[in-house]
Amino acid sequence: MADFIIRGRALKFGDNINTDLISPARYMELSYKEIAAHAMEGADLDFVKKLRPGDIIVAGRNFGSGSSRETAPIALKYAGVGAVIADFFARIFYRNAINIGLPVFESSAASLINEGDELEVDALTGVIRNITQKSEYRALALPQHIIELIKAGGLIGYLESKFRRDQYASSNDTF
Amino acid sequence: MGMTLAEKIIAQKTGRSQVEPGEIVIAKVDCAMMDDILGPRVQIADELKRLNKSIWNPSKVVVISDHYFPAATVKQAEIVAFTRKWTQEYNIENYFEGIGPCHQILAEKGFCLPNSLLVGTDSHTCTAGAFGCFGTGIGSTEMLGVLITGEIWLRVPETIKINWEGNLSNGVMAKDVILKTIGDLGHAGATYKVIEFCGSAVRSMPIDERMCLTNMAVEAGAKTGLIEADKTVYEYLQATGRANFDEPLRSDPDAIYCREINYNASELVPQIACPHEVDNVKSVEEVSGLSLDQAYLGSCTGGRLNDLAVAANILKNRKVAFNCRLLVSPASHDIWLKAAQTGILQTLAEAGAVILAPTCGACLGVHSGVIASGERCISSTNRNFTGRMGSREAEVYLASPATVAASALEGRIADPRQYM
User: What superfamily does domain B8-263 belong to in CATH?
Assistant: First the structure.
């Protein structure tokens, strides 16, 4: 299985970044692109301006609490966020992020990372390398099938390739 | 080994006699609910087409347009129109529009059945737990999987037992019970777990009040909040025409709970969640006197008939303060009608309330009563996050319908017990 390494700069947030802050309801009637233009607005008005593609959000406890809105991970993904590292995530956000192909990592080392640190996350081993601070931390590694799912762009892409494989397999059976 | 109610429901849905917390199982879904805001329009409609799949069982699918009704913008109107057309395309007969927030409608239409598994694209789907129904919120992509397969993977959750014994004092409501509980558990205190509400105070509550408890279980991070179904549930379901359901499951006496908290209901005083977190809970007394711009009575948390009746009793022959507007959104068309027929709406309107449509609108800040920067609102809804009801420079305090009514009268946060 090929490596899955995510590199990016840390953008720091505190505890309890809820989905109303990540994706305010008043923009939810708009397109994904427009929703993404307001990502994290409830927590930081300048977030999208600061963000460089691939940047990694590093937050505290209970990231993504509140609403089941899938526009929260969608906003982050479309805005260009490469991954989210947090102490721990709220349940529905965690599932939604994986399902739409946004890598999420639980790590108690989140508080050791500073704003702007260059990070490298190995999804398979769960090792976070802090290039700026020359240190390493552990995160919960993602199982292989979840990495495959994220690489396929999320659950739908994953299912699509699975359906195609199944179809191929069954057409082979007939011969 | 004994099992909790949550474990028993999940075991039944996976066709097994025993499950244990931490196991990952694939469970059969009894009812899949989508709303307008996170329903077909997000991922589901396009991807279902692209994958060229049909819906596993349209009769088990319920679609409710509630968040964007009545629409405030053309974009909202188009989302509702899209949702309506989509249900026609897929022959979904259970489509409801403009008759109230989805969780109330699911209950009134008889979809919240004891022992069943209900998933919805809204985090407050846990409301169904008041009927001994395992209701839980899921994302839109996950819903797509349910629509195709009729199944969902679940990690069997541990259960926290919350026990409220005794009688609540006059002027203290289910909302105070749940706010106190969330304040103690913390907003992530039940993450990945189930909260089971027990005790004589819970058993003596009418359905309207029980639904307020289970509705807010997710505010402590819970997967669902459950109450064992009993005679009260049976009578409610009978009235909806859904009296034929299996014998309700119950937790075994030797079931294992990961945590138990015991409360004496008679000691509870009115509670309030202060900005900007639902677990930032204080007694109303501690913050009484803070001036208000808006009081909001409504939603799937605090807009049921009992809520409106309690508020009307406080506001009867009195007037809302000049500095504070009172907005009332009954939680369903049915509640709206009953409140009209019994004179409750007239009492509220005479006191100066504006009576709105049954809708999610202002609760999540999308229409019908959003608030401006610098404004402060007291609300019987379920979230007070920054920007939740409008401007990110506004404040939302969450309290019971009684506290909302008393506060509207005074134009400042007020303890309702003096008006009982």
Answer: Aconitase, domain 3 (3.30.499.10)
* Res A159: pLDDT: 81
Give the distance from residue A66's alpha carbon to the nearest chain B alpha carbon, in angstroms. 7
Residue B247 DSSP label: P
Looking at the partner chain, which of A20, A70, A159 has a beta carbon nearest the beta carbon of B139? Answer: A70
Q: Which residues pair with B305 in a beta bridge?
A: none
Looking at 3.90.226.10, 3.20.19.10, 3.40.1080.10, 3.40.50.300, the CATH number of the domain A5-174 comes to: 3.20.19.10
Give me the pLDDT at residue B168, please. Answer: 98
Residue A174 has pLDDT above 50, yes or no: no
For chain A, the distance separating the N- and C-terminal CA atoms, rounded to the nearest angstrom, is 30
* Contact present, A38 and A31 (Cβ < 8 Å): no
pLDDT in tens, B103-125: 999 999 999 999 999 999 999 99
The CATH H-level superfamily of B271-419 is Aconitase, domain 3 (3.30.499.10)
Can you list the positions of beta strands (E) in B279-383?
281-283, 294-298, 325-329, 354-355, 376-379
CA distance B47 to B120: 18
Q: What are phi and psi of B398, to 5 degrees?
A: -100, 130
**B121 and chain A: CB distance < 8 Å anywhere?**
yes
ipTM of the complex: 0.93
Beta-carbon contacts of residue B192 (< 8 Å; ≥ 6 apart)? A91, B155, B157, B158, B221, B223
Nearest C-alpha in A relative to B279: A16
Nearest-by-Cβ selection for B187 from A21, A25, A62: A62
Domain with CATH 3.30.499.10 in chain B: 8-263, 271-419
Chain B residue numbers with beta carbons less than 8 Å from the beta carbon of A159 are: 51, 145
Candidates A22, A28, A76, A161, partner chain B, best to mutate (most B CBs within 10 A)? A28
Q: How far apart are CA B68 and CA B22, in angstroms?
A: 38
Q: B137 pairs with which residues across the strands?
A: B120
A159/chain B closest Cα distance in angstroms: 9
Q: Is B137 on the interface with A (CB under 8 A)?
A: yes
